[in-house]
Amino acid sequence: MNLPNKITVSRILLIPIFVIVMMFDFNWGTMELFGAEMPVHHFVAALIFIVASCTDWIDGHFARKYNLVTNLGKFLDPLADKLLVTSAFILLVELGLAPGWVVIVILSREFAVTGLRSILAGEGKIVAASKLGKIKTWTQIVAIVALLLHNTIFALFGIPFDDIMLYVALFFTIWSGWDYFYLNRHVFVNSK
Q: What are the φ/ψ torsions at residue 39 (nearest 5 degrees)?
């Protein structure tokens, strides 16, 4: 269990804390932040989500810089990312902050690409995250944070940044999913 893997595990351990803080109103009241009114527990949950999301970059940085890439890390890192993002999107739907159909499309892509990666792994091929995949991940994170913070800052100007980012994330989710399948279409074309 090297340092990058410990950081990844910390991300996984933050997920239930994030979920509990987001789902249960601890009577912390409400707050106004740059034109957006929100329950304080949503703000705290957003901070936890941001910290958890940053650990993704940190563990990857240490793994590459110090050549600490392990099979455990290759398994845990994408799992931690999917668990964190999936939890957040499901909570956003539960709280009425994101449309269910958008989240269904996003999560369906995640499951489909995970399935494709499993097939490729069976052939001995490891598919690294593409630039589109990384853009997809970061647009999803920005959208989730904007939704968790009830469109803070942009609410002052009447700009629905949270909704815009959700649809930008949806666009990159679909595009990157199509790209993964197109680049690996041989799996299906050559199947018997």
A: -65, 140
